[in-house]
């Protein structure tokens, strides 16, 4: 008989062992090696059996063992020291607190960093023991929280608690992906319910159409110093449909997906308000939306300001925008959530419409009003950008791609001026770097581990020690791969006799390439199979063999991705190569750690420029792995010719089939003639000296760049603090700033159709020379606007054959005297700083002290046709 409900009964610890619960309920154990050592010592065999899950460990350890530990004075001393270390970690000032202490004293304090930041994400990869992630977005979010904790950044995180996580992957006999959704009991996770002062669980409620309501309880996880609030709709107050809203990550579609995102955004803001009320935590000044899934948080904040502060919708919108950061993670339109407009109308209109947040305004926020936009859909990323004054991509290349993708939201501005910046992702070293590498670096270059300084000392690491560590990590990967491979084959129905070959699969002394990621088509899992026989010859080379370890999940609804997995599995099943190439199902954080630590080379071959960032190669680099990648995402900006190999990209040069053929051929050639040759080029002592020099160069140069500590510091200085300053400027004096900016925008927008550049002329030398100046005079009709409302600028620089300005510079012109018919004349002198083809133009843009960027309004006035000197030869 099967149980109809599964739940976890937590053990009662003997009094001397109570600090264990304190350690377990803070997820710092997932990246703190000393805490993990202590937990392992509770029962080493059981620790391995439960997959390093401390809650399961204490649930399954025998009472006799607990009593034994409670009487073990040495263990108790270690326990108290570890618990005290955690308490010190949670309370002592860290990097962020030094910023607060150095903020200007007195006055309004507007220059100080944010007192709190709310961080919203649909998924988080904190640890494999808390399976609430599917891929890179969640892993990045987890690394962001852990690093914020290490740096003392006061983030409150918000997400959903999925009762079945993403999915567990296995394979059928013929290699087809199968999905399972094992139930997750929150009581078996390192979580506690958020409760009011009277002990009652906190509930957040969202009104739905037809008088229904969606209720959710709030689970609290502690990620070091960061509180993480996870909303869970599986409560008795809900009907069955509502209880299933948080059933699985990225499950379902239509209504189900929309309700998840409403709960995350709207419910998430309400959960934060409850948490701050109960705990006294400062209210967030900045709200960071990690992708568009949580975009509805802006609507809830607008509702709060309208209903509680008496602002109009437009005034509240300005206040909300000022304190909101939006990060886009995809350069692929298919990766953006887009809902039918009628679905939004159903949930935000009719009897569900809020008087404070009218349906029409909601629809306007998500409308694709740019060229080629679809008027029938509501775009969550577009709404996120309209609700945020600061928007960023996750690598320099992705920032450029995003400016092209979304440039239509900012009117007639050139792509380069679209206000979408970039902060390149980073990775959390404590989570992803092996203990052996950390110990080696700590011994030889201690300042790197202690303070993140002195990376060049890595070049002095003893090569025999480094090679030994790399070999140990490769062997560990081989052992784990064999274990997982055997388990997979048995799940596929293989007998014991059919899996005996696995004992010899892979080799700890063979060049090992890793390839693991989600499996959408643009990541090209099967590019390596373009020429199967050539791949076979590379794997089986008698002098320089290669082995490849592959992992990845396709979305359950992605039949094309599943076919790619089946294709790679069928090749890996071939008896002649199966000891050199393996596919390991159920890719998760635990397997990811083995891969990035144990592989010699991390391979990545997406269609450029469709990889927003990609962080697995960063993790491999910190562990002494080298990258072999298309120049996409982060690799495009940080490849230097000595830290790995760049696969030549044929994007834009050929059709898809021809492009794949060219790039696959380049991949094969690099592996055969460069990667393998260098790996197997050994000196008399058996060391690959050139290879190890590349490894040390990679760690020394990429180390300070790829760390999430660099990333989070960038967010604090470039986005969070400016957003906090802007938010205070809007809210001061009863939201006077928000009222002022909203009124100004309405006035400017109304007048703008009449703003015109009516005449442009220039004078100077008849034959302009380098170093000279060109006098520019412009007559402008401001249509009743005050000159302080605008900036009149000359744009100048090199031009191409069509007279388009290339990377122009800008000069603000100054008002001279009135012209006829209430026009104004502006003048300035353009410096001629470069020779060759040169040109200029002029424009008028709105200007206000509370705008974050001159393109923010999307309004620009240009001359109707080129005037004056548009092209000349400067000598």
UniProtKB/TrEMBL annotation:
Its cofactor is pyridoxal 5'-phosphate. The keyword Transcription does not apply. Keywords: Allosteric enzyme, Carbohydrate metabolism, Glycosyltransferase, Pyridoxal phosphate, Transferase. Pfam families: DUF3417, Phosphorylase. It catalyses: [(1->4)-alpha-D-glucosyl](n) + phosphate = [(1->4)-alpha-D-glucosyl](n-1) + alpha-D-glucose 1-phosphate. Residues 13-130 form the DUF3417 domain. Coiled coil: none annotated. InterPro entries: Agluc_phsphrylas, Glyco_trans_35, Glycogen/Maltodextrin_Phosph, Glycogen_phosphorylase_DUF3417, Pyridoxal_P_attach_site. Its EC number is 2.4.1.1. The keyword Chaperone does not apply. Gene3D superfamilies: Glycogen Phosphorylase B. Belongs to the glycogen phosphorylase family. Phosphorylase is an important allosteric enzyme in carbohydrate metabolism. Enzymes from different sources differ in their regulatory mechanisms and in their natural substrates. However, all known phosphorylases share catalytic and structural properties. This is glycogen phosphorylase. It comes from Actinomadura miaoliensis.
């Amino acid at each position: 008989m099967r149980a109809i409900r599964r739940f976890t009964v937590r053990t009662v610890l003997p009094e001397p062992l109570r600090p264990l619960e304190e350690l377990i309920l803070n997820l710092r154990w997932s990246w703190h090696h000393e805490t993990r050592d202590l937990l392992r010592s509770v029962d080493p065999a059981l620790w391995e059996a439960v997959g390093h899950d401390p809650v399961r460990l204490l649930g399954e350890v025998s009472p006799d063992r607990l009593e034994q530990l409670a009487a073990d004075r040495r263990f108790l001393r270690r326990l108290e020291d570890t618990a005290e270390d955690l308490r010190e970690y949670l309370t002592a000032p860290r990097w962020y607190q030094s910023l607060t202490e150095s903020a200007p004293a007195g006055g309004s304090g507007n220059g100080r960093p944010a007192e709190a930041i709310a961080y919203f994400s649909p998924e988080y990869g904190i640890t494999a023991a808390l399976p609430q992630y599917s891929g890179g977005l969640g892993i990045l979010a987890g690394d962001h929280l852990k690093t914020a904790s290490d740096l003392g950044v006061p983030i409150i995180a918000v997400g959903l608690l999925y009762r079945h996580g993403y999915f567990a992957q296995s394979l059928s006999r013929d290699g087809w992906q199968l999905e399972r959704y094992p139930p997750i009991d929150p009581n078996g996770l390192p979580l506690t319910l958020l409760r009011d002062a009277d002990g009652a669980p906190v509930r957040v409620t969202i009104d739905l159409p037809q008088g229904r309501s969606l209720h959710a309880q709030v689970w609290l996880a502690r990620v070091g110093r960061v509180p993480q609030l996870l909303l869970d709709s599986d409560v008795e107050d809900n009907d069955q449909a509502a209880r299933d809203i948080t059933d699985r990550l990225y499950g379902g579609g239509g209504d189900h997906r929309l309700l998840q995102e409403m709960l995350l955004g709207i419910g998430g803001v309400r959960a934060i308000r409850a948490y701050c009320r109960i705990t006294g935590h400062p209210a967030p000044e900045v709200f960071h939306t990690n992708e568009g899934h949580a975009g509805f948080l802006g609507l809830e904040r607008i509702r709060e300001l309208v209903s509680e502060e008496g602002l109009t919708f437009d005034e509240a919108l300005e206040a909300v925008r000022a304190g909101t950061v939006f990060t886009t993670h995809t350069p692929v339109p298919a990766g953006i959530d887009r809902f039918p407009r009628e679905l939004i109308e159903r949930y935000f209109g009719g009897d569900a419409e809020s008087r404070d947040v009218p349906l029409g305004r909601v629809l306007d926020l998500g409308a694709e009003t740019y060229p080629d936009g679809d008027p029938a859909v509501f775009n969550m990323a577009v709404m996120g950008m309209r609700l945020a004054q600061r928007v960023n991509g996750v690598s320099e290349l992705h920032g450029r791609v995003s400016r092209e993708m979304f440039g239509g939201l900012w009117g007639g501005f050139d792509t380069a001026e679209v206000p979408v910046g970039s902060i390149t992702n980073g990775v959390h070293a404590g989570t992803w770097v092996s203990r052996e590498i950390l110990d080696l670096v700590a011994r030889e270059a201690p300042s790197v581990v202690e303070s993140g300084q002195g990376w060049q000392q890595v070049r002095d690491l003893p090569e025999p020690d480094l090679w030994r560590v790399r070999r140990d990590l490769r062997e560990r990967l081989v052992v784990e791969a064999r274990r997982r491979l055997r388990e997979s084959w048995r799940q596929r129905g293989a007998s014991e006799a059919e899996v005996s070959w696995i004992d010899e699969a892979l080799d700890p002394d063979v060049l090992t390439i890793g390839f693991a990621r989600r499996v959408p088509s643009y990541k090209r899992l099967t590019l390596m199979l373009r020429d199967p026989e050539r791949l076979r010859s590379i794997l089986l080379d008698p002098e320089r063999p290669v082995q490849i370890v592959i992992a990845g999940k396709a979305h359950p609804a992605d039949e094309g991705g599943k076919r790619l997995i089946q294709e790679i599995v069928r090749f890996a099943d071939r008896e002649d190569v199966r000891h050199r190439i393996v596919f390991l199902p159920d890719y998760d954080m635990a397997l990811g750690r083995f891969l990035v630590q144990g592989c010699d080379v991390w391979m990545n071959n997406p269609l450029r420029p469709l990889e927003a960032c990609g962080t697995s190669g960063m993790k491999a680099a910190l562990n002494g792995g080298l990258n072999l990648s298309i120049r996409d995402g982060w690799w495009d900006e940080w490849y230097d010719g000595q830290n790995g190999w760049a696969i030549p990209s044929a994007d834009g040069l050929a059709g898809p089939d021809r492009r794949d053929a060219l790039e696959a051929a380049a991949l094969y050639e690099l592996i055969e003639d460069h990667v393998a040759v260098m790996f197997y080029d050994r000196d008399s002592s058996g060391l690959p000296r050139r290879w190890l020099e590349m490894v040390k160069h990679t760690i020394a140069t990429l180390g300070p760049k790829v760390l999430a500590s660099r990333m989070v510091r960038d967010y604090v200085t470039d986005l969070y603090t400016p957003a906090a300053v802007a938010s205070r400027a809007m809210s001061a004096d009863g939201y006077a700033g928000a009222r002022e900016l909203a009124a100004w925008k309405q006035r400017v927008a109304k007048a703008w159709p009449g703003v015109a550049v009516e005449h442009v002329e220039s004078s100077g030398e008849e034959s302009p020379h380098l170093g000279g100046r060109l006098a520019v005079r412009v007559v402008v009709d401001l249509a009743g606007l005050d000159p302080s409302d605008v900036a009149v600028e000359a744009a100048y620089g090199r031009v191409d054959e069509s007279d388009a300005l290339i990377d122009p510079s800008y000069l603000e012109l100054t008002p001279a005297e009135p012209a006829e018919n209430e026009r104004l004349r502006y003048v300035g002198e353009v410096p001629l700083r470069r020779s060759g083809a040169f040109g200029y133009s002029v424009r008028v843009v709105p200007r206000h002290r509370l705008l974050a960027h001159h393109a923010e309004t999307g309004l620009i006035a240009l001359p109707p046709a080129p005037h004056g000197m548009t092209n000349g030869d400067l000598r």
